[in-house]
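Assemble and predict.
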Amino acid sequence: MPFVERLFAVVRQAGNPVVVGIDPRPEELPAGFLDQFPGDPPGVAEALRRFGCEVLDVVAGLVPAVKFQCAFYEAYGPPGVAAMHATAAAARQKGLIVILDGKRNDIGSTAEAYARGYLGKVPIGPAYAPSWHADALTVNPYLGSDGVLPFVKVAAREEKGVFVLVRTSNASAGEFQDLMAQGQPLYRHVADRLRQWAAPHANAAGYSLVGAVVGATYPGQLAELRQALPGILFLVPGYGTQGASARDVAAAFDAHGHGALINSSRGLTFAYERPAFRARFADRWQSAIDQAVRDMIEDLAANTNAGRLRLGS
Amino acid sequence: MPFVERLFAVVRQAGNPVVVGIDPRPEELPAGFLDQFPGDPPGVAEALRRFGCEVLDVVAGLVPAVKFQCAFYEAYGPPGVAAMHATAAAARQKGLIVILDGKRNDIGSTAEAYARGYLGKVPIGPAYAPSWHADALTVNPYLGSDGVLPFVKVAAREEKGVFVLVRTSNASAGEFQDLMAQGQPLYRHVADRLRQWAAPHANAAGYSLVGAVVGATYPGQLAELRQALPGILFLVPGYGTQGASARDVAAAFDAHGHGALINSSRGLTFAYERPAFRARFADRWQSAIDQAVRDMIEDLAANTNAGRLRLGS
């Protein structure tokens, strides 16, 4: 099934657009968790894998998708990458949509190697076989079409998705992204190109496998980009720990409550660190994560029109 | 020893500024090479490792540095990444400077996780230990200072280097990088920020651990950026297969023949595919690579002022 149809079906089934971001910082794992593993890179990697799989056990059935932040796994070298690979495979087995947040970028056949590796198939022996099994990958657009279209080509062939950074959620995002050129900021130029990249791959409902990363921490620009990019899926970071509220992300959805995935990472997976959760759940950290995810689902239902998804529409 | 001093010493010793780019495309390995390995991901990964190490045996002692293109390893999942890790370690043992071409980018503590992983140390047990041992990493600047300074901070602490994409070598590089904002193209805005990021880390000779990636395929812009960025190391892709000549890259060097590394990837490591080399070396593919590297060194010596390096200055 094509990526957009698969994603919409899973969102409809879950009844919410929440993406749980899995960014396993070793220093924020539950108290005592790391101590169960050997103090070497394979041991830390195994801790990351075990933690990620425990998070999956909590959130599968609650949310439609998870997003893995590659940095925290790659930091531990090959065993770390193996831990991400195994956790991503477990997520897919649980029916979750798997987004790899690698912000990859390169040109021509190099971009295609990333795309084939993460989203498609690579030559192995006489045949082609999948390597990573991800559903979607984040991509950085600085290199222009040469750096993005190879990802789109592979995603289209393999029924996968691509999310292109347009307006990021960080404080210095505007240094380059807001520079005014020919009457509009750089991020709008990126958005214009993104429409071109996405258009050939739009489905009957107008949605394309080429999506956009648009931070929730700049709600005005989020609303502006929703208008400028009808039919573009938004992957929206910034809710929760980064400071954006449900009202801030409301503009990411279309009139039907569709078209956006709202990510929260630390605010969900490290909820047990917050005093209110610690007071209520003590060392039952899985329960703290479960509650934080349910709170986020409720918050979005109450304050955005994605709440309609809960009615099965 | 700080990165810049280490790099300059190795360049002086080699007498040339050549970086051998190791981009192991399985379909371009020497005839019969892949057949020696099992037709599964670990088998292909082992072929990539073995090929990379054979390339190192040829080029160590000839050139100062190698650059690994992460995409071709990551495409094979955890075993591919393990192959890159092992080949990079072998390169360092041979005294080569190791540049990882990952074009990484993210914000805040996530960027720091990449930086600590690839350039620095990560928490393992009660201590911090290195994971990747690379000397330098390429970084994409689209996210602004938040996305670059964590890499710079870790590199400064660990005596490593960072190369920030400024003007890339691909055909569509200009789509965003050439957009005119406030009277200058985007890539000049990136260059201006890069000077700020680099300045606190300049050594006595004025060179900083924060370098720039500037493609050789746009020689006019390369010359312009050399003027605009005194004291910034340039990592210059585009020589050879991508079309740039030694005369095109001449402007990358400062008045002393310093300050630039010239990369060639396919043109060197897959030299045996070119008819002239095939005719001369047949299946002695290592000899073809050796000759291609020597040809490039001679070409740069004859057509750029980096030739002075050969005199030991």
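The mean pLDDT of chain B is 95.
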